[in-house]
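To fix ideas, we quote verbatim a fold written out as tokens:
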Amino acid sequence: MSSLPPASPPTNPTAQQRRESFARRAESLIERKYSISTDKSGELTITVQGDLTQQEKRAVFLTVHDLGCNHTSFQDFVNSPCMSEIKERSCFIHVDVPGHADNNAPLPDNFTFPSLQTLGEDLVTVLDYLHVKYVIGLGEGAGANVLARFGLKHPSRCLGLILINCTGSAATVLETFKTKFISWNNDEVAKGAEDFLLYHKFGHAFNEQLVGDNPDKEKIVSEFSSRLHSSLNPKNVKHYVKAFMTRKDLPLKNCKVDVLLITGMLSPYASVVEKLHKDTDKEKVTMMKIERAGNVFTDAPAKVAQSILLFCKGQGLLTSVVMPGVDRQRAFSTSSGGSNGEPRRLSRGMSMEEYDKPNIRRLSITVNEQLPPIQAKK
């Protein structure tokens, strides 16, 4: 039985590669905020991580947050060590739904909070304002539902969707009945509302018998509760919850772009995601379930980062980011073939940025949960 040849020793980066790496890191630290008025959803607060003037050489992500939080939930994940190489070669457009930026005042009494459908359709205004051609949608919970509707409405502006704990059906009678008894105060989030949001966000992950794999779970739940009480306006949070509970069915089977559904096996929405996947075109929609995870961002961030990278490679993005266990030089020489079917080597005149330019036909997605997590550069 023949064995694979040993990987060639890593080569030292050239001065040019070091300069490019430094420039990417500097660009990834750029952060700008915008207030963008939309046709039907009012004003959206937008936080951009990365330099959008370099979008031709970057993967551009559009994120929408879940209930009980805002863009900082995605910002924290993007800034985590397992996302460092992806962050260097990407831009992130984080959306705060109306009234959800830090320390926002209550929305006016005459303001009609948009439905998830309206929010999704209006997101194209953000892209137009920022002069962004197309994006990868990255959403969680209610935000995943919003981005799915964006992808359905504007497929030409969406390269793909990564949806975490996405619900495809309308709220059940039981869900609606339960939320009617949640008490909300104008100046604080009441205990019943907090319990609902904790369960929605973390599922069984904070249950003593199903602790998951994150040793910092208690700290994470405590920080979530603290932000819920100190940074977010409870009246505005209630509006988003109501929009989620009155959502309509999501016809994801009609989606024209590639979709990756991610859920944790301990998530309260795991079975809902499974049902959504069952009703879709399997050539377009892939599902990944993560064991011992309720909130996949906190319980399995490296697996989520790995899945994002694999999905983006399937869209011809982030091709210079090498998967763990693959030698960088070998990866560049075999990742795309020439016209005669033989491996095409990375040209000496091609920079990492040029190699990262979108090429939709370059690669296809293969989800492999056995791969080790992405390691950040030291």
